[in-house]
Amino acid sequence: MDTDEVDWSALQARAVEAVGRAYAPYSRYPVGAAALVDDRRVAVGCNVENGSYGVALCAECGMVSDLVAGGGGRLVAVVCVDAAGEFIMPCGRCRQLIHEHGGADCRLLTPQGDLSMAEVLPQAFELKPPS
Ligand code: THU
Q1: Protein residue closest via CA to atom 1 of ligand 1
Q2: 119 C-alpha to center of ligand 1: Å?
Q3: I need a labelling partner for 25 at 20 to 30 A (CA). Which of 45, 83, 120, 123 fits?
Q4: pTM of the model
């Protein structure tokens, strides 16, 4: 799917909708994520925390779970927002997760504009799953 076709404002709206559902009572830092999938559906996620702080689920984890549970596919374009609806950068673990499911050419809308995953995660770790 051509990335020129990405409706970034529609994706941002879905991420803003998701951030409103975040469960972040410990950090008080809600996050929403939305991604366009190569079959044109949209995968979404929000962060879900836990009293055992270290096991918080990032919004991007929920988004990738939605991708896989919804039938799989490849991430084409991703938006992550905070409670104010501002674009935020995914953490290191989530960059790896997005790279695995979207590849180096997947686009990410960042505070510096539209960047590729190759730019936000150079020299990504890649391991082919055994067949
Ligand atoms: N968080 C995300 O949801 N995504 C990120 O990429 C960075 C951090 C969440 C985890 C935790 O619930 C809160 O933000 C504060 O770190």
Answers
A1: 58
A2: 21
A3: 120
A4: 0.96
For 66, residues 6+ apart whose C-beta sits below 8 A from its C-beta are 43, 44, 45
DSSP 8-state secondary structure symbol assigned to residue 121: S
Centroid of ligand 1 to alpha carbon of 47 (angstroms): 6
Catalytic residues: 60
CATH 3.40.50.2300 fits 3-89, yes or no: no
Of 102, 85, 117, 98, the C-alpha closest to 58 is 98
Q: What is the pLDDT along the chain (131 residues), one digit of tens a residue?
A: 777 889 999 999 999 999 999 999 999 999 999 999 999 999 999 999 999 999 999 999 999 999 999 999 999 999 999 999 999 999 999 999 999 999 999 999 999 999 999 999 999 999 988 98
**Is residue 90 in contact with ligand 1, taking CB distance under 6 Å?**
yes
